Amino acid sequence: MVKNTQAPGAGWHFDNSYSRLPELFYTKLHAGPVSAPKLIIFNEEVAKTLGLQAQVLKSDEGVAVLAGNDVPEGAEPLAQAYAGHQFGYFNRLGDGRALLLGEQITPSGERFDIQLKGSGRTPYSRGGDGRAALGPMLREYIISEAMHGLGIPTTRSLAVVATGEDILRETVLPGAILTRVAASHIRVGTFQYAANWGKHGEIRELADYVLQRHFPDIAGSADRYLQLFREVVRRQASLIAKWQLVGFIHGVMNTDNMAISGETIDYGPCAFMDTYDPGTVFSSIDADGRYAFGNQPQIAGWNLARLAETLLPLLHENPEEAVNIAQDAISEYPDLFRGHWLDGMRAKLGLFNQEEQDGDLIESLLATMQKHQADYTNTFLDLTFNRKDSSGLHGSSEFIEWHERWQARLQRQQEPWEASRELMKRSNPAVIPRNHRVEEALDAAVEEADYSVMEELLHALRNPYAHSEEQAEYATVPPSSKMPYQTFCGT
Ligand code: AMP
Ligand code: MG
């Protein structure tokens, strides 16, 4: 039995709008209790934004809530139902190991989902145990916080609690629960679920709900469903451009892992690229490279087309007309993406204005980096700080030629080099969560209960554009023996 001592004074202020949707969309249930919850890491900054009292949440009563052993006042835990194309194959899914506690209303009136990930079995668990391991949950904590520091829309991490229970994967691993904070957990796959299994216009109810919750400005307009779709397209175009600009590889861009809010969600086998190569794949389960770095923009377009299909009945009563409307809207995606990406790349190169040949200038740098196996992040840092070394890239005639072309391009704008450098410092991170540093932090945490390596890493990642001395150490590339690196689904 779940107790209900509620950690009074924690600052919970729930309003659970999702639970007022038709029951098709969820199953209400409580988490299975865990034996010995222990707080591993807690995010004071996120707690503050949410209007939560860190001291109360870090107490035994608070940790009981973060472990799913206790339900805070006003919460109505539920597992969400959804579907998704996983590596191109359509499946009926749902929260198999997560529970939405409810929607926290912050002191400034914002609404955030509070979700426990790894909280036990649900009706959507299929063959799984509903649990999560400590390593992958800390990994999600680190990477999501790093993404936030980089200025990329993302779900946040409030806490990780070890459950005190072992879980069985390839080996026995310590179990853990991550408290995830999101604008919402509504995915492309939620729409696919409503379109496929709704019988009474649930797709319209979902679309109306999403309009109210995420796009209130357009909720009243006559063509609101088209506008909803176009807004999701815009947000994804902007989001994926941001990923590409920092070398982030999501790893499992299934339609159930694409949030309607435009936040990055579900950090499983994700990783940041060291050496520049568009074919980079880290995930052990992505044998065909469907979700390789260079494929991400196009895959997002594919996922958006799946979303458009679910909205067809809402776009026009005539099915052919509806398809035309949807196709028109989705055809804007490639140019939107390209526009964001070019803008971001110009900033990385210190360019304020636009020239026709900029795309070519950028692509020729990338091709040269690929040929000489240059580190993606550090190449841009070297340009920012005018550093030259004896690496293959810097010594190559292609790069020397490119550098002259870039210098000439900089001369053709009004701003002085100092202004360009400042723009480049704001646009080129000094530190990314490199795989070998993340692994080192996780090893210390999981194997030795030493959390200091992780805390230091998180500190360096908080403001990646500071270019502090402490951060210089994190720019070191991994020894070549650490590559190629493989990540495993966060199971
Ligand atoms: P993911 O690839 O992490 O996005 O998960 C895909 C689906 O598998 C989702 O429906 C998850 O809830 C479910 N899932 C992942 N791991 C487990 C687990 N250990 N037990 C039950 N369901 C799981
Ligand atoms: Mg998922």
Main beta sheet: strand number and arrangement?
Answer: 6 strands, antiparallel
> What integer value in Å does the Rg equal?
23 Å
How would you state the average pLDDT, rounded? 96
In N-to-C order, the SSE pattern is EEHHHEEEEEEHEEHHHEEHHHHHHHHHHH
Structural class, from secondary structure content?
alpha+beta
Helix fraction by DSSP (H/I, runs of at least 4)? 40-55%
**Total domains:** 3
Strand content: 5-15%
Based on Cα principal axes, name the global outline: globular
Named once each, the bound ligands are: adenosine monophosphate, magnesium ion
Count of helices?
18
Given as residue ranges, the uncertain stretches (5+ residues, pLDDT < 50) are: none
Number of strands: 12
Distance between the termini: 27 Å
